[in-house]
Amino acid sequence: MAWVFLGIAGLFEVVWATSMKYSEGFTRVGPTAVTVAAMAVSFLFLSMSLKALPLGTAYAIWTGIGAAGAFVVGVLFMGEAATAGRIVSIALLVAGIVGLKLSSGH
Length: 106
What we know:
- By secondary structure, the protein is mainly alpha-helical.
- The chain is built from four helices and no strands.
- The N and C termini lie close together (11 Å).
């Protein structure tokens, strides 16, 4: 279950990062509320995953899911560039996440 919790935590990290962008510096109430709520859920599930997973592995994967997910949201919904360099860089990040998972022993 720890890996499931970590995946959920990572998905909520994407939610809070995205809603933070829409909060316009925490000046819009709705997106700000979503940001704070999603942060709380993300941290809750991260803390639950840390009961069974090593800190370094869990934290790196959590932030990696957030970074890769935010990249995808940015490209698909916010008109951000999907250049070859950016795509290769995210692919390397995802490869690192997979490598951490496979070598974690959990």
